[in-house]
Known about the structure:
The complex is a heterodimer of chains A (603) and B (387).
Chain A: E1 8-15, H1 21-31, H2 49-54, E2 62-68, E3 74-80, H3 89-97, E4 101-107, H4 114-125, E5 129-135, H5 144-155, H6 173-183, E6 196-205, E7 209-218, E8 220-222, E9 226-229, E10 235-237, E11 240-245, E12 248-252, E13 254-256, E14 260-264, E15 278-281, E16 300-306, H7 312-325, E17 330-336, E18 340-347, H8 350-363, E19 368-370, E20 374-375, E21 377-381, E22 386-389, E23 401-416, H9 420-429, E24 433-441, E25 444-452, H10 453-456, H11 460-467, E26 473-484, E27 486-493, E28 496-497, E29 503-506, H12 507-524, E30 532-538, E31 541-548, H13 564-579, E32 581-584, E33 587-590
Parallel strand pairs in A: 1-3, 1-4, 4-5
Antiparallel strand pairs in A: 2-3, 6-7, 6-15, 7-14, 8-13, 9-10, 9-15, 11-12, 11-14, 16-18, 16-19, 16-20, 17-18, 21-22, 21-23, 23-25, 23-26, 24-25, 27-28, 27-29, 27-30, 30-31, 32-33
Chain B: E1 5-13, E2 15-16, E3 28-29, H1 33-54, E4 58-67, H2 75-88, E5 91-101, H3 109-117, E6 122-128, H4 132-138, H5 144-156, E7 162-168, H6 175-188, E8 192-197, H7 205-211, H8 220-236, E9 240-243, E10 246-248, H9 255-262, E11 266-269, E12 274-277, E13 282-287, H10 291-296, E14 301-306, H11 308-319, E15 327-328, H12 329-336, H13 340-343, H14 346-354, E16 358-361, E17 367-370, H15 372-376, H16 378-383
Parallel strand pairs in B: 1-4, 1-11, 2-3, 4-5, 5-6, 6-7, 7-8
Antiparallel strand pairs in B: 8-10, 9-10, 12-13, 13-14, 15-17, 16-17
Amino acid sequence: MSINQQLIRNFCIIAHIDHGKSTLADRIIEKTGLLTQREMQAQVLDNMDLERERGITIKAQACRIIYKANDGNEYIFNLIDTPGHVDFNYEVSRSLAACDGAILVVDAAQGIEAQTLANVYLALDHDLDVFPVINKIDLPSADPERVIHEIEDVIGLEAQDAPLISAKNGINIEEVLEQVVAKIPAPKGDPEAPLKALIFDSIYDSYKGVIVFCRIKEGTVRKGMAIKMMATGATANVVEVGYFGAGRFIECDELPAGMVGYITASIKNVKDTMVGDTITELSRPAAEPLPGYKKVHSMVYCGMYPADGAKYGDLRDALEKLQLNDASLFFEPETSIALGFGFRCGFLGLLHLEIIQERLEREYNLDLVTTAPGVVYHVNKTDGTQIELTNPSNLPDPSEILSMEEPIVSAEIMVTTEFIGPIMELCQNRRGVYLGMEYIETTRALLKYELPLNEIIYDFFDALKSRSKGYASFDYELKGYVESKLVKLDILINHEEVDALSFIVHADNAYERGRKMCEKLKDEIPRHLFEIPIQAAVGNKIIARETVKAMRKDVLAKCYGGDISRKRKLLEKQKEGKKRMRQIGNVEVPQKAFMSVLKLDEE
Amino acid sequence: MSDKRSLGIYIHIPFCKQKCKYCDFLSFPIDDEVIKDAYVDALVYNIKEQAKVCSDRYIVDTIYIGGGTPSLLSFEQIQKICTAISTSFSIDEDYEWTMEVNPNSAGDAVKLMMIRKAGINRLSIGAQATCTRTLTTLGRIHTAEDIFATYEAACKAGFTNINIDLMYGIFGQTVEEFAKSLEDILYIAPEHLSAYQLIIEEGTPFYDLYHSGQATLPSEEDIAKMEEILYSWTQLAGMTRYEISNFAKPGHESRHNLRYWRMQDYLAIGLGASGFIFGDPGLRSENTKDLQEYLERPTSGTITQVPLENEMEEFCFLGLRMMEEGIDCENFRERFGRSVETVYPPAMFERFIQQGLMIKKYAPREAYVLTPRGADVSNMIMAEFIN
């Protein structure tokens, strides 16, 4: 059976978070009739629990659906879902590269947001045909006219005939489908040419091995074909090809140019099938790979330790399993004097970190102690070499350091004009360099800043939200490294340095962070028989100090008659609490103290 | 006679006139003679059933009627209980039999004399304080005069072994107020004094008051001052701090309470009461806490086995409560067939000793005993004895 390329549409939906991307995807799948109402889970494309809870799409996935259009033809729609968070920018770009067009969803009340812009520009960069859809028109605060003008003025997209829809209530979905047919081009590509297939995602299945999600750009992939990944060099024999029904894999004989589908080839490791790589035929390889492949680099690092040292092996197994499905997760063993054996882990961003942490705790039942996340610093040594510093404890002796560089991002913040002041102040506090401001319309502006990455990985989103009453939106991309006045801040508990609490900070902020850190630790560390000084130090200089007073009393005076079990329970609880402590010298420090640094800015 | 094991009996009376604001014991206000009668009948049944099982192997030497407020019972009701005990069990000649009384319901010298005649030879008066302001805060319904009158009546009735309960660290209590209460009590010179620091228990009005910020506790410094006064004045009054919160003139230690701390056998009679029989395994009983159920079936409750390891732990942490006696090494060996240092690392004892929290005594018996500083932080030490 040959497939008519003219009847294929490969597209994705792009939107700012919460503007209704997943809901629209659900409606499209519903309208095309592949699923009954009963089969529909609330949101079909997001299938990890975690994604549903957080309302975001983590892993790109795809779905093949059939649409009988008004012109009488049956079209194959390949709807490719894209992650919606800046941490996963590279994945987004590869998903976009698998598409020929995109539906831009804009909230009829909120209008264009920072992520909307970022995603549109990304889509346009990939030469996608984009058409807008105005969603949530049934909201009382909806103002589609204004939003249409905004889209035309700011993005420069024709929006007069944008479908006005409510994905939630299924209003006007047919119009969206018709526009997909009319406005998104059919794929091109010669089914007879040497194979070029773009990998845009892969998952690990314990029965089938790695399942590669790909878009066939040129040629045809068939069962039994020997294939090669052009960047990683891995080779394999295709065991199965197919496409994506709603929530399941449907096997077929071949995938010709223009199609989106999956390949399995008994590949054991997702590292062999990196997102962005090109699959070609081993015996008849393409001359050159598809453009755009990048090796993903971890942006944020932290130490992860099992709360119970005996669970080290379990943690390693869990990380290995997660890595099977997530090539962007990096980890290597490390040891800490304070925390024992654990791993230094690298992530695409803080959200990625949080997701992994939650999955380890939830799916693998691990109790974790996580050290303060940090970015990768470049340390230029006096001997002319440069090291990439991912763990503050590995900072060379100051005498060997010539200079240090930190990663900088260019950030765009969309904000209503009344909050410009507070947001600029926030960026200023975070060592931002103001680049400029554009007015989107009279009441909204786009602020452009250069910000050090380490200033935004902790709590920048939260601070942004609270200062703008939730109205600001934010997007960034890595710009490069600049030299910076950085110091290592050490924490001493009862005069002992605690390696797991050290972090790199800009010299100007060292005092304040040190002070906050000491205050926080003072609250977290229980009183002991003796007084415990908590100090923050830069080099040999103590810059802040707090004291945990000696414990005066810890006694249960009361006599519960002969009811010993009550007293016993109390002591057991106390003992249990002690087990969750880490011994630093002769001080017992609760696990959560190591994570308290993450919340330094909560006032 | 000597082949019989000694036994204590605890009898719980869950009734009170009005629940105190700090109290989380099993008690509730009841003013219905029919229910009280029914309860006393249930107690009598409970006593007789228990006696059937064990009276031939035991000789009773301590009895404790606690509450609630046992003095809310009429003399006839008290007498019924006493008769049931004395006719069902063999009682040691040298027995101690305590009853808790409240200063405003203990009754006059005549009632107390009858109680004394019925066999009860020790009274425990729940005074808590003599200062009106403190008593009001606590929600106590008696006055300082009630306390003195009750004490006087008890002496007249022939009681020569009397305990008074005091509390300190109460909301808004000043050091002076506590000192005044203590002075008043030491002036009338009871044989025994229990002094407990207030504990704010969940589910009490005090808990809500404290956690909503409506009431503040005395500062740590003030509590320390109160304790300093408590320890030095009781000493001057010729009392020994033989347990973390208990003080007595020589020979007047509460033998019944010592039983708990020494892990000697005791039976539980009455609503929600708990008992313990040492052995391998030990047996811990707990009676039902449901009044209706208890009235219908006074033997309902649970019995749990206590493994030997737990008994060792409890022997140690309870032993440490006794400031003179401590963990008695010889007793430990006798009971468990091994020395305490083979169960817990000698290094642990060594550490506590070095930290000034514990001492090892060799006379009159070999024992580990807490220092006053050790007693202050005893929870931390005791927790180390739990695995």
